[in-house]
Amino acid sequence: MEHERLTTTTPVNPGEVVVAQGLSHPVLGSVRCASAAVVGGALARRGIRVRYHRALNSSARVDQRLPVVRVTSWLDATGRARGFGVASAAGDTATATAVAEVMREWSSALRTRRLLVAGAPPTCHGARRAVRLVGRALAGGGAVYVWGRMVAESAAVEDLRRRGAMVVTDLDLVPCGATVVFPAHGVEPAVRAEAVLRGLTVVDATCPLAADILAEARRFAARGDTIVVIGRADHAVVSTLTGLAPHDTRVVQTVDDVLRLDIDVADPVSYLVAPGFPLDEAADVIAMLRATWPTVRAQHGLCHAATERAEVVDGLAAACDLLLVAGSDDCRDAVTIAERARAVGQADVHVVARVEDLRLAWLPRASTVGVTPALSAAPGTVDGIAEALSALGPLSVAHRDPDIPSQATADDYHGRDARSVPSEVHPTTEPVMTS
Ligand code: SF4
Q1: Residues annotated as region Disordered (predicted)?
Q2: 308 has pLDDT over 80
């Protein structure tokens, strides 16, 4: 590894740095600086203004008036130079000190490593299908309203908004004759009836799996059961399920929640694991329900999407020294992934909104890094992380796909007679517009 001090004719102001995304070196020629964003992020966190330059020139010429370029480089297996270059103004010692610190961190982070990328997308079949249907409705022209919440990658939701999709939670705001799309997690019957009454054109993007589970909840309510929904209260489908029988539905997520339920032991009780909730996290809750209400009845249909994704996170967390969740730290999905990884023993988990947020200090001991996108991941973040790591030593990249047991059934989790379980329905059919 080479550390050098060169000069550049590119102007640099005191208090700022110019970080090379590519560097023209007097001996090595073109130096690839794929970790420019990581270096820029480290300097910005030290309070320094950062500009980037796609092809910063550098020279061995000694001239006290010219900006200084500090360069660190190594040669990859093909003999190509990789590294980074940062220019600071002549005589700007405070900035130069910060650059020297980042250079040391960068050098410590340099090592051979492996990157494991989660192969599974952050959304399920049902959510992707709903996005497709909103897009198709927009392409048909006219105003398109989406009822409730669109659960999909932030970038996809933003794209639909830009194209004119409007999210509403009150059908009175939808003009007569306009198109309203029901989301993947479905709507309550009252909303459906109101849409028909108002003559709206309905595109029903309810996922068939979610529709099955909602239908079961309606059957439970019709036979007079108290329904215990196992899931996160802030998940869209949980509010839809609760809305079917608001007075007879309770939401629980933990064993403690079950202990707090005010249901008479003689009352008929049924439970549903909500889509979006991993089934292994529901196991203890189900056991406590069974212990408290021995005649409690279970659902037949189950959605395995969250379970499969949790299995991917578990596998990644176990296989790596450092897990990066691409997304924003105010995103429920990103936080849930990080919590899951910590729960299975991975202590070094970080949510990374931009490549700039990747800290050099996390990397020296990380010989295997895992990365998985959350719903809020900006397009290109996972690739950007891979690119940045490729500048920090020889990198091999592998994709981890879910290791899913073939056709798990509801009985794998409820311990009932397998013959009573219907086969799982995958949402491959597309709905027809109705008005
Ligand atoms: S039921 Fe499952 S597959 Fe369908 S939208 Fe919900 S989480 Fe996705």
Answers
A1: 397-435
A2: yes
